[in-house]
Design a protein that fits this description.
heterodimer; A: alpha/beta; Rossmann fold; nine-stranded mixed β-sheet; 26% strand; B: alpha+beta; Butyryl-Coa Dehydrogenase, subunit A, domain 1; Butyryl-CoA Dehydrogenase, subunit A, domain 2; Butyryl-CoA Dehydrogenase, subunit A, domain 3; 3 domains; four-stranded mixed β-sheet; four-stranded antiparallel β-sheet; 13 helices; 10 strands; 50% helix
Chain lengths: 260, 380
């Protein structure tokens, strides 16, 4: 089972104070702490688990600068065999369309049964790269995978649907799956893993060497303006004794249609 | 001069941080309140290779340096000091085995440590011998192929849970040179005459076991002598020169936690209609904390970097130790002050930080002793 995992280095924005960058079309990422996109962490874990079960190889790929190699070293430390970085400085100038073109171009020349991407990336929440890659490569795909089994060379996948429903599919390989968080419990990176990773191959490909046309490297999504959400009115504080507060609360919830 | 960590060091730091954040916060308050620990967390840390990274590969370690060990300790302490210590002190004494033990001793006592098959400790302090370790009276008397050990050890880390301890014993009480009277022995804790009583009511690092150890006619084979007889004091000083490095890392780690808690709190808490962070008095506190943390870290980074190059700078290690210890206690104090009443109750992490920090000014050389070492290195 040869598996390719696409991973992205993203800023941690959950607790950070965000500012809009000078250009006004992105957040300022200068002082933010970067790390592997959470969904990709589950994707690499799933790939390594399959490798441990069925043998084969795991290749991790990212599009980014030298700093973004941190994500690939992590994948190698978790058990990937090789890693590839397509050297691009400042990938935020690219949209999902361009990134999927670049990744597809590299992946096309590799041997694979499965390609994993995370469902989403925490920085832009677009969630399109996986599907666009599958279309570009003309292979089967399934999204939001919460469970995966291999049966007679096919993938039995469970996709997460709304309302907690699951959809089970049997998919012919090769296929691309976008991996949902919670599918497994990603391992911690070990010291031994880090030491082994240092001896594994981490290849860099220059973007111009891929021969992708300027047309294909032109983003289809143009961001005109980024802005912080405007401050809204403060919360409504309910007053009175606990009985009054709780009945007022229920009244409000009913009005909003949350309770019947 | 290059102030950057290598990629490998950055990865180690990140891995240690992630492990600590994943495992410590949920259990920290429980262990602190109950003075307990869950050894499964130590086992996990060993499986991942965080314990004893400075131990050579031939003895199951990662073959890294004390610098990398310090990086791990700092990250662990930045999350929770008690759990951090319960894990990393499992190798307390391995530094000495690495330096002075025979190959046979290393195979037997060093190799199990990184694998998580044994916990060790080092018993030095006695009821009447603290900073002046030459006063230690626990005796080891030769009897044929054995030594008979008698005495009491105080504040022994891991005393009641360790598989074996390195015990600092008097072997030549009449030697005119008080620095040549002692020797180190490995004492397995299941030997007859060994008894440990866990010390309760510690101010901080309460997840980490500390015990009073009583040794009554404990017989150990002569092959349990570590290093040369009579060189115990000298070996102890060499040992402290490397272990004091990780104390600095502890100090920087906990000071970082103090800063982090403070920043989060003063940005959130409003008084007089504005966040506490808008008052210059608090801004200055934050500025001073951040500066001192950086200074302490640079001091210990240099000392640890030199140690791994085989160039121990005794005075520099002592500078780093007292400075970082005092800095940590000061940061913890300011952090609690900025929390006001909330900081005084144990639901708030800063209260634990305040109690945990104090130990770094005390163990493995009080700051007063460290200053004497610094002064001696200058005045001669």
């Amino acid at each position: 089972m040869d598996i390719i995992v696409c991973a992205k280095n993203v800023p941690d924005v959950a607790e950070a104070d965000l500012n809009i960058s000078d250009k006004g079309t992105d957040i300022d990422k200068e002082d933010l702490v970067f790390g592997i996109n959470d969904w990709d962490n589950y994707a690499i874990e799933e790939a390594v688990l399959l490798k441990e079960k069925y043998g084969g190889t795991v290749t991790a790929i990212t599009v980014g600068s030298e700093d973004d190699e941190e994500v690939l070293r992590r994948c190698l430390a978790m058990g990937a065999d090789t890693a590839i970085r397509i050297d691009v400085d400042g990938i935020s100038r690219f949209d999902s369309f361009v990134i999927s073109k670049i990744l597809s171009r590299v992946v096309k020349d590799l041997q694979f049964d499965l390609i994993f991407t995370g469902v989403l990336a925490e920085d832009d929440y677009c969630g399109m790269v996986g599907m666009m890659m599958a279309e570009e490569l003309n292979i089967n795909h399934a999204n939001m995978i919460t469970a995966l089994e291999i049966e007679d060379g096919k993938a039995r996948t469970t996709s997460e649907l709304e309302g907690g429903l699951g959809e089970v599919s049997l998919i012919e390989l090769p296929a691309l799956l976008t991996i949902q968080t919670g599918i497994n419990e990603p391992r911690y990176v070990s010291i031994l893993g880090i030491r082994k990773a240092a001896k594994k191959e981490l290849k860099t490909i220059e973007l111009p060497d891929l021969g992708i046309s300027d047309e294909e490297l032109s983003p289809r999504t143009i961001i005109e303006e980024a802005f912080l959400p405007p401050e809204t009115e403060g919360a409504e504080i309910l007053a009175g004794n606990p009985d009054k507060i709780s009945s007022d609360l229920i009244e409000i919830l009913k009005k909003k249609g949350v309770m019947e | 001069m290059d102030f950057n960590l290598t990629k490998e060091q950055q990865d180690i730091q990140r891995a240690a941080r992630e492990f600590a954040l994943g495992e410590f916060p949920e259990r920290a308050q429980e262990f602190d309140r109950d003075e307990t620990f869950d050894l499964d967390i130590w086992r996990k840390a060993c499986e991942l290779g965080f314990v004893g990274v400075f131990i050579d590969e031939a003895h199951e370690g990662a073959g890294l340096g004390f610098f990398e060990h310090c990086l791990i300790v700092e990250e662990f302490w930045a999350v929770d000091a008690g759990i951090a210590n319960a894990i990393i002190t499992a190798s307390f004494g391995a530094e000495m085995l690495g330096m002075f033990a025979t190959e046979e001793q290393k195979n037997k006592y060093l190799s199990p440590i990184p694998k998580g098959e044994a916990i060790m400790g080092t018993a030095i302090t006695e009821p009447d011998a603290g900073s002046d370790v030459t006063c230690a009276t626990t005796s080891a008397v030769r009897d044929g192929d054995e030594y008979i050990i008698n005495g009491t050890k105080m504040f022994t880390t891991n005393g009641s849970i360790a598989n074996y301890l390195l015990v600092f014993c008097q072997t030549d009480p009449d030697n005119p040179d008080r620095h040549q009277r002692h020797s180190f022995f490995i004492v397995e804790t299941d030997r007859a005459g060994y008894e440990a009583n866990k010390i309760h009511g510690k101010l901080g690092i309460r997840a980490n076991d500390t015990a009073e150890v009583s040794l009554v006619n404990v017989r150990v084979p002569a092959s349990n002598l570590v290093g040369q007889e009579g060189k115990g004091f000298k070996n102890l000083m060499d040992f402290f020169n490397v272990t004091r490095l990780h104390i600095c890392a502890m100090a920087v780690g906990i000071a970082r936690a103090a800063l982090e808690e403070s920043v989060a709190h003063i940005k959130k808490r409003h008084q007089f209609g504005v966040p506490l962070a808008s008052f210059q008095i608090n801004q200055f506190k934050i500025a001073e904390m951040a500066t001192k943390i950086r200074a302490a870290r640079n001091l210990y980074y240099e000392a640890a970097w030199l140690a791994d190059k085989g160039k121990i700078d005794h005075g520099l290690v002592a500078m780093a130790k007292w400075f970082s210890g005092e800095m940590a206690v000061r940061c913890a104090d300011e952090a609690l002050q900025m929390h006001g009443g909330y900081g005084y109750i144990d639901e708030y992490k800063v209260q634990r930080i305040y109690r945990d920090a104090k130990i770094v000014e005390i163990y493995e050389g009080t700051k007063e002793i460290e200053k004497i070492i610094v002064a001696n290195s200058i005045l001669g």
